[in-house]
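step 4 of 6: structure.
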Amino acid sequence: MPYQQKLVTVAGYTVLLLTAAIFLFVAAQAWPFFRDQVDLSFFTGDRWLPVSSPPSFQIRGFLVSSFMITSMAIVVGCPIGILSAVCLAELLPRQASILLRSVFEMTAGIPSVVWGFLGLTVIAPFVARVFNLNTGLTGFSAGLVLSVMILPTLVSLADEALRAVPREYAEASYALGATRWQTIWRVIVPAARGGIVAAVLLAMGRAIGETMTVLMVAGGRLTTPGSIFEPMRPITALIAAEVTNAARHSEQYHALFAAGLVLFSITLAVNAIAAAVIVGKKAEA
Amino acid sequence: MRQSYTLPELFLLSALGLALLPPLAAVLYIFVRAAAGISLEFIFAMPAQRGITGGILPAILGTLWLLFGTSLVVLPLGVGAGVYLAEFAPRNRLKHLLEVALINLAGVPSVVFGLFGYSLFVLTLGFGSSLLSASLTLAAMTLPLVVTATREALHSVPGSFREASLALGATRWQTVSTVTLPCARSGILTGTLLAMSRAAGDTATILITGAAFFLPRLPTSFTSRFMALPYHLYISATQLPGMPAERIWATAGVLLFIVLIMQVSATLWRERERRLKKW
Amino acid sequence: MVESKHKVGFRDVSIFYGRLQVVKHVSAEIPEKEITAIIGPSGSGKSTPLRSLNRMNDHIGGMRITGEAIIDDQNIYAAGVDVVRLRRKVGMVFQRPNPFPKSIYENVAYGPKLQGLRTKADLDIIVENSLRQAALWDEVKDRLHASGFDLSGGQQQRLCIARSLAVGPEVLLMDEPASALDPAATAKIEELMLMLKRTLTLIVVTHNMQQAARVSDRTAFLLGGELAEYDVTRKIFTAPQDKRTDDYISGKMG
């Protein structure tokens, strides 16, 4: 085996190694916290008081916030995203689809801090006015911005899944006298179902992990929100907001890594399901 | 032939419009608002008075340095791993595991990469809060993107090229280096450029691993702290009540401009290559 | 007919893809500097034994071979055989023309360059000779640096033949080399094959019986992975011994 081939083999395994390393090095800093706190109140309690004495680190509020904002982003984003993908894959002329795909891809590049800034200055005041709230910095505003941010992921993956459906299926349907509308909804979309589910899952993973937007737009209240129209702080925002201020190796610092480990596990679970759908489908083909 | 659409299909197309409108409006709005704050001084001068006056040169250069450092690491590693996956990895459980790891890695939130980078590079390896730590962290974050782009580019090279080369007595490595990789080159480079645009805009990772808000000097080495555009935007927008609005918009405009330039040139280049390519 | 030296041989060769047996106990001796045609209905495993001769099947997962495939009295599946060297001796031309996305010149120079030849003068000579041997020189000598894709299909296939010749093979395997070409281009390839057999041993898989009858010296008839009949071409087409061959030749199946 030439040495170059050995080098690329090593590079290939680095991917595996990196995945393991992320878990290990985050877990290493989270360990002191889990070692000292053995009960489940970390997940179920609502008291995040890092500087009280004694301090208390409980993350229910952040988990609930993440869940609320992600749900909102998915509920708003999915219909629009999937319908858009259907347009690109099935309705528009080829050239137009190619152009719009590139446009979507470019919008994926808009940095989340830029979206956060727009949410802060444009969306939040607008939401406050429309819903007559004291502040627009709420889960609702963050979810709204996130629903736009996940569209590129959603559209490109769903579009890909739709286009992977063999042309023969559609032709068979047309040959039986079906209209384009019937063919899309009864043949193509059902055939692409697995890929579309994977697209939604990966978009959900992105929404859960999104940090800057929710940090800047969601408000920042540390307790469990009663509704999506309240200020809240998802788990990503908690980490980004506090980790640079926490003294190294303080209890707060280890608790933040513990929160990071929880976040990592959640996104890993969501992505693993999506990966199983995608890789499983490839194995079938 | 002109396409004609039924009423329900027009409804679908309106969903597409709804999806495209916000990002396009956002880009336009930011550039319009940014125009007021952009000046030669803003781009080429050092900041003064905690960023309230002067320019953002160190933040711009910091971001460019960051991209340079990141690509230095991620390019060989990511292309290597992509080549391994596409050309050499035997089809077994390990390869399956690698592909699953790749999908998962791409989905890890950037804030988790930040924690990882802090734990490994800043603390364990002792690189401190620095350009080096941040570059390495961003390299980890963009690795799956580069690997995937490389793998896809190589997969799109027709198998008949490989066969022809092997049949001429080329080794597998010769086949990769003289036929498949050159054919995949433009796909790999556009993928890398897109990955770098992601790195340019990422905030959560560098916030944890070494970005600073106010450093009125250019980074002198990879071990020093640094300013960077996304972090500068975040702090100006949220932590500094005295910051003039047009300066924040201008910062957002410059960041967006850099990111979009990379995106647009990658996309245009890819389309050009697609037209020129004959297989 | 005078028996010439045997160049290639199959000794009880069976080939499996996973659990599927594609080639079943094939034995045959193929003389040098002749054209041997392999015919048979589609799906009868014609390409597999051909591709086993330069071990192109190695890259297909789950491939297993038993028996011996012989070239120059050596089992090419024996341990320690250098596959790369084998492929320089046993060239291959594929069903669809597959030039590299490089210039005509670079396509032909590819193989010699792999072997470390760098001098421009030497390469020039090899490129010209190979293109002449492939009867393409006169058509392309003024545009050697144009892309291989600028040529017509038939020219591309001859370019691929020239590319193989540049490595200096002794055996040339051709996998339905004319199936993607029009009749005029096919005729040129056939003419070229007759020229090449002066110096090379040619083995050609074809689904075109007329082609086999026109150009080959010997014909092997494969059916369901078995070698139904193998003999001098004239005999196969005029007095087949096996009823299945007769049926196939006279068009009752396939």
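step 5 of 6: annotate
 - Chain B has one domain: 56-273.
 - The CA atoms of residues 176 and 182 of chain B lie 8 Å apart.
step 6 of 6: archive
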